[in-house]
């Protein structure tokens, strides 16, 4: 009878290999094996997910390629099986977000051998393929449970760190006091903006946080207390501020524009050709370049509009901030 579809023997053997891997992973290791559907087979047959000793499904995974058949274990060279792979699979596996393990099996003995795929372990084989050695000592059984477990990598309890961050976020959102960010002298001298960028990124994790942090930040510079110069007269301080402007962008939204020393003037003075003129009624008088001021305001206002559009901020709030900026720059004297 040949009027029906036929199941090929190779398919039957291949399925037996997948089932054997699944049995060992699920029953002997206590982990989870998820088989990929054949139509989604692009060089991987399944995924193993690590379950810890307490039964916690961790999210750590290993992708597997399973080759089960006499031909796959016949290429023995000393104490290794020489596995031959396709070029397109090398690229696919090398870019996998999960480690890839190659498993080959002998249907006669029902023994499975494994090796972690690593481009550095491969060698060319003709023009269309490559090889990797699979040690005959790497048998997929309980004896190698620990070795395979290490392939997953460390399991992090992200919830602990998340709860710490949530607690700080709560303080920021529920406290009306200004948020003081102090830039160290070391960061100034090394033109380091990592902590600054991380700080402002934190203030933008949600729309609620953005709204709560409107005009709450004071930007302060530390480490120059014994310097007789004003901060805006120190070249490296000005250079740091000048380079920080495009890294944060949304200064007008976050800086406390009601506070003269919130950091706004330092940002502005860093891009203007200012000059000390003298003292008047207890204040230092400074000349400035009007063209530079207009350029600074133009770019910062455009960034302010960008943020308001991004988070659906009402135009009336944007207008209030714009007026606060204009009031702040009416007198460009530095106390």
Explain this structure to me?
- This protein is α+β, with helices and mostly antiparallel strands and 335 residues long.
- It folds into two domains: 9-152, Trna Endonuclease, Chain: A, domain 1; 162-328, no CATH class.
- 40% of the residues lie in helices and 22% in strands.
- It has helices spanning 9-29, 87-94, 145-152, 158-174, 185-190, 194-202, 207-212, 235-248, 251-254, 264-269, 290-311, 315-328, and strands at 32-35, 46-51, 57-68, 76-77, 80-86, 100-106, 111-116, 123-125, 129-135, 179-183, 217-221, 275-280, 283-287.
- The protein has a five-stranded mixed beta sheet with strand order 1-2-3-6-7. The chain has a four-stranded antiparallel beta sheet with strand order 4-5-9-8.
- 21% of the residues are buried.
- The mean pLDDT is 88.
In short:
The chain is α+β, with helices and mostly antiparallel strands and 335 residues long.
């Amino acid at each position: 009878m040949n009027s029906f579809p036929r199941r090929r023997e190779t398919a039957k053997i291949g399925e037996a290999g997948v089932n054997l891997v699944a049995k060992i992973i699920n029953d002997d290791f206590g982990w989870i094996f998820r088989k990929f559907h054949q139509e989604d087979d692009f060089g991987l047959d399944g995924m193993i997910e690590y379950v810890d000793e307490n039964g916690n499904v961790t999210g750590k995974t290993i992708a597997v390629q399973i080759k089960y058949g006499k031909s796959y274990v016949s290429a023995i060279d000393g104490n290794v099986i020489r596995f031959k792979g396709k070029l397109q699979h090398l690229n696919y596996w090398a870019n996998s977000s999960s480690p890839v393990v190659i498993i080959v099996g002998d249907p006669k003995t029902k023994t499975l051998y494994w090796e972690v795929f690593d481009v550095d372990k491969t060698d060319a084989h003709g023009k269309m393929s490559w090889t990797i050695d699979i040690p005959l000592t790497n048998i997929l059984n309980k004896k190698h449970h620990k070795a395979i477990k290490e392939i997953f990598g460390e399991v992090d309890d992200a919830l602990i760190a998340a709860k710490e961050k949530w607690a700080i976020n709560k303080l920021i959102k529920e406290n009306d006091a200004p948020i003081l960010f102090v830039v160290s002298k070391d960061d100034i001298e090394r033109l380091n903006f990592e902590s600054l960028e991380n700080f402002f990124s934190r203030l933008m994790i949600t729309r609620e946080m953005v709204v709560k942090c409107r005009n709450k930040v004071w930007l302060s510079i530390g480490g120059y207390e014994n310097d007789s110069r004003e901060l805006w007269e120190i070249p490296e301080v000005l250079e740091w501020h000048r380079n920080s402007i495009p890294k944060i962008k949304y200064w007008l939204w976050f800086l406390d524009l009601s506070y003269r020393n919130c950091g706004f003037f330092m940002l502005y003075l860093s891009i203007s050709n200012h000059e000390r003129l003298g003292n008047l009624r207890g204040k230092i008088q400074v000349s400035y370049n009007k063209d530079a001021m207009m350029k600074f305001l133009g770019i910062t206002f455009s960034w302010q509009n960008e943020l308001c559009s991004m988070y659906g901020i009402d135009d009336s709030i944007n207008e209030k901030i714009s007026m606060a900026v204009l009031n702040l720059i009416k007198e460009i004297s530095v106390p």
